[in-house]
């Protein structure tokens, strides 16, 4: 949903550009992800949302963590993914500001006890702590999986989500 000051721009009915912050939230050897089904396939996406004008990627991720999960965090920017995604009959070109944060046991326990229906999440949202290896294999866009391991690139391009892997337009 478009909110005031979001860096999200429709080019036409089938093409949109946006800048998003994603949060790879880790605890032990697991990552907190949203479980979704795309085309009958079970995949995961990272929590996050649109960066607002004047906001850094880390600031946007911290705001989204508060709005979506009730967490006060100071995420670290670890990279940028240029993602070309085809979804619901539209093509998206997104700059994903990839951030990470690690929860300690007490924070993870508080998160598990929260009623997430009180936060800014779609009603059908399913969150899961996913083992890092599984998350890397099923995370969309797939380039995000690289940021779950040491020595991740700072910049990655992911065109695999566009039919044919070619020009998204």
Report what the structure shows.
The chain is α+β, with helices and mostly antiparallel strands and 169 residues long. It has helices at residues 57-69, 105-113, 132-138; strands at 8-12, 15-27, 30-38, 41-45, 48-50, 76-87, 90-102, 126-131, 155-161. Strands 1, 2, 3, 4, 5, 6, 7, 8 and 9 form a nine-stranded mixed beta sheet that branches. A hairpin with a 2-residue loop joins strand 1 (8-12) and strand 2.
E-strand count: 9
Helix share bin: 10-25%
Task: Give me the secondary-structure category.
Answer: alpha+beta
Per the principal axes of the C-alpha atoms, what is the gross shape? globular
Strand content: 35-45%
End-to-end Cα distance? 23 Å
- List segments where confidence is low: pLDDT < 50 over at least 5 consecutive residues: none
Order of helices and strands: EEEEEHEEHEHE
């Amino acid at each position: 949903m478009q909110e005031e000051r979001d860096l999200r721009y429709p080019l036409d009915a089938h093409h949109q550009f946006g800048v998003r912050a994603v949060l790879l939230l880790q605890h032990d050897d697991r990552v907190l992800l949203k479980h979704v089904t795309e085309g009958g396939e079970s995949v995961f996406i990272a929590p996050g949302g649109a960066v607002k004008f004047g906001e850094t990627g880390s600031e946007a991720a911290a705001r989204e963590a508060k709005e979506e999960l009730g967490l006060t965090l100071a995420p670290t920017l670890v990279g940028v993914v240029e993602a070309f995604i085809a979804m619901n009959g539209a093509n998206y070109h997104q700059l994903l500001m990839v951030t990470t944060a690690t929860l300690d046991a007490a924070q993870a326990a508080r998160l598990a006890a929260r009623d997430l229906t009180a936060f800014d999440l779609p009603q059908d949202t399913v969150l899961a702590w996913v083992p890092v290896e599984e998350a890397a294999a099923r995370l969309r866009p797939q380039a995000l999986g690289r940021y779950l391991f040491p020595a991740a690139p700072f910049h990655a391009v992911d065109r695999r989500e566009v039919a044919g892997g070619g020009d998204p337009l």
